[in-house]
Design brief:
The chain is mostly helical and 188 residues long. It has 6 helices and no strands. It has one domain: Ferritin, core subunit, four-helix bundle (Ferritin). Helices cover 79% and strands 0% of the residues.
C-alpha cells in the first residue's frame, strides 16, 4: 500500500515538473499555432458582440426617448420641441424593433440606459429655455454621430437579425443627425 502511494506521489511530481518545463519551454517556432479558437469560443464571442451591440443601442435609444420627453417640457424653441417629439416617437419604435431582433438571438436588452446617458439626462434636467436648447441639440448631434457610426459598423455583423435592424435603422438615424445639425446651427 505504501508502495502504491509512493508511486502515485512520484507520478504526480513528475507530471507537475513536466508542466513547469513546458510552461518555461514553449514548443519550437516550427510548430504552427492553432489558427482556430476552440469550438466554443466563437459562438461565445458572437454572443458577446451581439450583447454589447444590443446594450449600446438600447442605452442610446432609451436615452433618446427620455431626452426627447425632456425637450418637450424644457425647450423654448419650437424646432427643438418638435425634434424631441420625433425622438420619442421614432426611438420608441426603434427600441421595440431592436428588442424583437435581440430576442431572435437570445439577448435580453437592458431595462435602463447606461451611466453615461443617465449623467447626460441629469445634466440637461437642470437646464431650461435657450440654454437647454443649445445643450440638448449639441448632445443630439454627438449622440447621433456615435450611433450612426455603430450602425454602419454593425451592417457587417454576422448576426443576421441585428445586421438587418442596423441596416434598416441607419437611414433614420442619419436623417435625425442632419436635422439635429440644422437646428443646432440655427441656435448658435
Amino acid at each position: 500500500m505504501k508502495s502504491l502511494a509512493s508511486t502515485s506521489a512520484t507520478i504526480a511530481f513528475v507530471l507537475a515538473l513536466s508542466g513547469v518545463y513546458q510552461a518555461q519551454n514553449p514548443p519550437a517556432p516550427s510548430t504552427p499555432p492553432n489558427p482556430r479558437p476552440p469550438a466554443q469560443s466563437a459562438p461565445q464571442a458572437k454572443a458577446t458582440d451581439a450583447r454589447s451591440f444590443v446594450d449600446q443601442m438600447t442605452a442610446a435609444g432609451l436615452a433618446e426617448v427620455e431626452l426627447g420627453k425632456l425637450a418637450t417640457q424644457r425647450a423654448s424653441n419650437q424646432d427643438v420641441k418638435a425634434f424631441g417629439e420625433m425622438m420619442v416617437k421614432d426611438h420608441t419604435q426603434a427600441n421595440k424593433e431592436l428588442a424583437s431582433a435581440a430576442a431572435q438571438v437570445n439577448v435580453q436588452p437592458p431595462a435602463q440606459t447606461d451611466q453615461k446617458h443617465r449623467d447626460l439626462i441629469a445634466k440637461l434636467s437642470k437646464l431650461q429655455g435657450a440654454e437647454f436648447d443649445r445643450e440638448y441639440m449639441a448632445a443630439m448631434v454627438e449622440g447621433h454621430q456615435d450611433v450612426a457610426a455603430s450602425l454602419e459598423a454593425a451592417k457587417s455583423m454576422s448576426n443576421h437579425a441585428l445586421m438587418e435592424w442596423a441596416t434598416k435603422t441607419l437611414p433614420a438615424v442619419q436623417r435625425h443627425l442632419e436635422r439635429a445639425k440644422q437646428i443646432r446651427d440655427k441656435l448658435t
